[in-house]
Design brief:
The chain is built from five helices and nine strands. By secondary structure, it is of the alpha+beta class. The protein has one domain: Jelly Rolls, CATH 2.60.120.10. The longest helix has 39 residues. It starts with a strand and ends with a helix.
Length: 166
């Protein structure tokens, strides 16, 4: 894996970042702080971007490529849509990484170092930033919960149909 510094023109959000929903939640001053605490991560197929059990406070935004999420070596999901966010759970609860994320293809991510950002913008002094940040994360988690609930409902229905045929 390779890390590259992210250098931007203050006050602007360049392509392809201007199409990512995460950034729409923030005022321009907040965007600059986020981008100053960010860098690019380039991963080759097989590179482990996140290791299960690792202490880490980074949030990742997929720009290009495809990743696989696994827990205890068992595949759980894939991440392939530009703009998808991953790694946010450890930031919310200061917990160890619950799953591993490995690049399936050549991948480019924007990485936001939340610990560095907390030092730059302490929570007690930046309520509007953290309201926007946690608001966006809660929308991401709500969408994932909805998707998981729909899947569970569908699987329960299929299970009932299989039981009824016996």
């Amino acid at each position: 894996m390779k890390e590259f510094a992210y250098i931007h023109e203050e006050g602007t959000l360049p392509e392809p970042l201007n199409r990512i929903a995460f950034f729409e939640s923030f005022q321009s001053g907040h965007l600059n702080d986020i981008l100053y605490s960010s860098y690019f991560l380039q991963a080759d197929p097989g590179d482990e971007v996140i290791r299960q059990g690792q202490d880490d406070t980074r949030i990742f935004i997929l720009l290009t490529g495809e990743l696989e999420v696994s827990k205890d070596g068992e595949p759980l999901a894939s991440i392939s849509k530009p703009g998808e966010i991953f790694g946010e759970m450890s930031v919310l609860g200061d917990e160890k990484r619950a799953a591993s994320v490995v690049a399936r293809t050549n991948t480019l991510c924007l990485v936001i170092d939340q610990q560095f950002l907390r030092e730059l913008k302490p929570e007690e002094d930046n309520a509007s930033y953290y309201a926007a940040f946690y608001g966006f994360i809660s929308r991401v988690l709500a969408a994932r919960l909805k998707k998981a609930s729909e899947l569970i409902t569908r699987l329960e229905k299929e299970l009932e149909e299989v039981k009824a045929r016996k």
